[in-house]
Design brief:
755 residues, mainly beta, Maltoporin, Chain A, 22-stranded antiparallel beta barrel, five-stranded mixed β-sheet, 5 helices, ion transport, iron transport, iron
Length: 755
């Protein structure tokens, strides 16, 4: 029975015969797309439609042939997600986020077994593209700051090279914030949490004036440390102070033209995570710790000694202008212009976990660094629609200039038996700075993607093709190395064509499948931590993916499944010098790595007010071994921040209580073991995190605006796992295994209002 005929039977069951016959004849003559649209309009229950812009146009996620997850406004609120760090627990199983080397001032983002490695280097790019309101962010520094009034986060899995460009070999994060409404409204929230946590934020929409809509966003957030620093006046570990402001102005001079200007500025002061001395290196040399230090196999609340510690400070600002012009009902010209500026300092102290103990020897290595970066980008898009063809044509320009420096010194000295220490005044170190570099990148691209839906097969078949031309040019230098003048330089140039092709078919109005082939590319560069400024080549990912997207049970259930296989060529791998872990070399693999996996997303709404969402990710990666350039030993490699199995489950229930609404939320996030770097021989522990939130909404207090009161808890069972785990084994080192842990149990209360 055809789909139009099936719809006719449903109509017959709920209306009289004459009306049904007329409607049925009309439906049988309609294309399937129109049947689906009319049926959706008649649908009054079930799951809400999710609109995404992963293909540069608004469309239903079920009609988008991409494996993706979306966190909408409600999910972000219920899970307490205000920044990328809040995704660290694994709410989206195939996406992993962790502070780089335990430092919250920079984030390591991984997806589908592909991570960026040490992307804190200005001469190296990330592997997961990050876009905020259409603007690409080139640096991972400064990403710890809370984001502003989000509408949704789209997680696009797998290479996205055609529409999102270079450095999207693992996928892309497409973050969209709310736009000015033009109607007066205030959305405000204050909160208190343990560890003396305090938050306040406000989002104000002003009434439209002279055709201009203005929206203002502001936030402040602070928390004391998770591990106390015994040194009076110094910062504790895991503390932060964050504040930010954004202003948007939307002007529509005509019905066809729209200009959205945005300015944002933020400051994030955060201290690093505490590095615990977990244990000794299996089969290694005897551990070299002083008598007053002991192993810390379990989470600690107080540091082993007090050391001078200042926060790392990120100052980020940016301007963007998003303009669109509807040339006709079927053709839109869009321009996205942006300038962004970043200044990020880094302050850290190893508290004696790195340098091996020796009588009267220096220890407590203090490291300081700074990155300054600015970028300009311009993107043009021509988005068109005809009866059977949707297309986007575009051009992209990107310029980046960055510089950095680093310096390390020792603030303490042991006595002759390791039972006490004295302060080095001034700290013991070489010439400042120890290292400095600068880097300059220029990228140009032309791209196009089109989807053809032929009139045959009741318009069920969709054929998509895409192509992107990219020309990259990068160069950099190290003028200072080990405190002495140097003349180390590198250059990188690449011109490429990266294709994409997809075949999609609608088996019914609620079930469709697709097969996709795509190529992603990450630029080459040089390792700024190398003594020779060693360059490395570009890498490439070729991906084959098949997917099924379906809705059933009267649209109260949604099941999406994707399976993929990827060839990862010239993979960029980092190796640390065992004698000096700060010295790092990046090599390309000689053979192709193989990554394959399955992703499953299931959402159920069995009855009014209740939603159950589950996701599962299986990843199997085979990376060819590579000779460690420092030891000369063949090293076995594994994908960083990639558990073989990961899953999440969340439940939400909303029920009326008089004139109020009670909202209950719980989520559970599981991860198997994984290494925190590809060449690391040790694994982070598996874990199961449990989070919950209870909200009483629409509380009326006389004539005042209605309030919402929420109680929340994260990591309710105080589960421990490592966000960074590393062996410090080598000549002059402690020969210990250290780790930075996830946040312990946190809980708090929030009061919000909206009017």
């Amino acid at each position: 029975m055809g789909e139009g005929a099936m719809h006719l039977v449903q109509i017959l069951a709920r209306t009289n015969f004459r009306t049904a016959l007329a409607a049925g004849v009309s439906l049988l003559a309609m294309p399937l797309a129109e049947v689906r649209a009319q049926d959706a309009a008649e649908q009054h229950s079930g799951l809400e439609e999710i609109i995404v812009t992963a293909q540069k146009r608004a469309e239903n996620i079920q009609d988008t042939p991409i494996s993706m997850s979306v966190l909408g406004e409600s999910a972000l609120e219920q899970q307490g997600i205000t920044g990328l760090r809040d995704l660290m627990g694994g709410a989206i199983p195939s996406l992993r986020i962790a502070p780089f080397s335990g430092r919250p001032s920079a984030l390591n983002i991984a997806m589908r077994g592909i991570s960026s490695g040490d992307a804190t280097q200005i001469s190296r790019d990330g592997a997961i593209a990050l876009y905020v309101d259409g603007v690409y962010l080139a640096r991972v520094q400064g990403l710890g700051t809370e984001l502003f009034d989000l509408e949704r986060i789209e997680v696009l899995r797998g290479p996205q090279g055609t529409l999102f460009g270079r450095n999207a070999v693992g996928g892309a994060l497409n973050i969209i914030s709310k736009r000015p409404s033009g109607e007066f409204g205030v959305d405000a929230k204050v909160g208190l949490a343990n560890y003396d946590g305090r938050t306040a934020e406000a989002h104000v929409n002003l009434p439209e004036f002279a055709g201009i809509r203005i929206k203002l966003d502001g936030m402040v957030s602070r928390r004391d440390g998770l591990v106390d620093n015994p040194l009076r006046g110094a910062w504790d570990w895991g503390a932060y102070r964050r504040e930010g402001f954004r202003a948007q102005a939307l002007w529509q001079p005509t019905d066809a033209i729209e200009l959205l200007y945005s300015f944002d500025v933020s400051r994030d002061r955060s201290s690093p995570n505490y590095m615990q001395i977990e244990g000794t290196i299996a089969g290694g040399a005897p551990i070299a710790l002083p008598p007053i230090f002991s192993l810390e196999p379990d989470r600690v609340r107080r540091a082993r000694i007090g050391v001078p510690l200042e926060p790392s400070v990120a100052k980020v600002s940016g301007h963007s202008l998003n303009a669109s012009w509807e040339l006709s009902d079927a053709l839109t010209l869009r321009s996205i212009t942006a300038y962004r500026k970043l200044s990020q300092t880094q302050e850290d102290n190893d508290i004696g976990h790195q340098t091996g103990y020796r009588p009267n020897g220096n220890f407590a290595r203090s490291s300081a660094a700074r990155v300054d970066q600015d970028q300009f980008s311009q993107e043009l898009q021509l988005i068109g629609t005809t009866d059977h063809l949707n297309y986007v044509l575009g051009a992209y320009l990107f310029n980046e200039d960055a510089s950095d420096w680093a310096y390390a010194s020792f603030v303490y000295r042991w006595n002759d038996d390791g039972t006490a220490y004295t302060v080095n005044n001034p700290p013991s170190g070489g010439v400042w700075p120890d290292r400095a570099s600068d880097n300059h990148a220029r990228s140009r691209a032309l791209f196009g993607q089109a989807t053809w839906t032929p009139a045959i097969l009741d318009e069920r078949l969709h054929l998509t093709g895409g192509l992107r031309y990219t020309h990259d040019k990068k160069h950099g230098r190290i003028p200072l190395l080990r405190g002495a003048p140097a003349a180390l330089t590198y250059q990188f140039t690449s011109s490429r064509l990266d294709p994409m092709a997809t075949i999609a078919f609608d088996f019914s109005r609620d079930v469709n499948a697709y097969a996709k082939y795509s190529i992603g590319y990450r630029a080459g560069g040089a390792n700024g931590r190398s003594a020779t400024y060693r360059p490395f080549a570009e890498e490439e990912v070729r991906s084959w993916e098949v997917g099924l997207k379906s809705e059933f049970w009267d649209r109260r259930a949604r099941l999406n499944i994707a399976a993929y296989s990827m060839d990862y060529r010239d993979m960029q791998i980092d190796f640390s010098n065992p004698a000096n872990p700060s010295a790092v070399e990046t090599l390309n693999t000689n053979a192709t790595a193989k990554i394959k996996g399955i992703e499953v997303d299931l959402t159920l709404a069995p009855f009014q007010g209740f939603t159950l969402t589950g996701s599962y990710s299986f990843t199997d990666a085979k990376i060819p071994p590579l000779v460690n350039p420092f030891s000369g030993v063949l090293a076995n490699l594994r994908p960083a921040f990639t558990p073989r199995n990961a899953a999440s489950l969340s439940a939400d229930y909303a029920v009326p209580v008089g004139d109020m609404t009670l909202k209950l939320h719980a989520d559970f996030n599981y991860s198997g073991t994984f290494p925190t770097s590809a060449s690391s021989p040790v694994l982070a522990d598996s874990y199961l995190l449990t989070n919950a939130r209870i909200t009483l909404a629409d509380i009326a207090l006389g004539g005042a605006p209605k309030l919402s009161l929420s109680l929340w808890g994260k990591n309710l069972f105080n589960e421990d796992f490592q966000t960074f785990r590393f062996n410090f084994g080598g000549s002059g080192l402690t020969n210990d295994r250290v780790a930075a842990l996830n946040d312990p149990r946190t809980y708090g209360v929030e009061l919000s209002t909206r009017f």
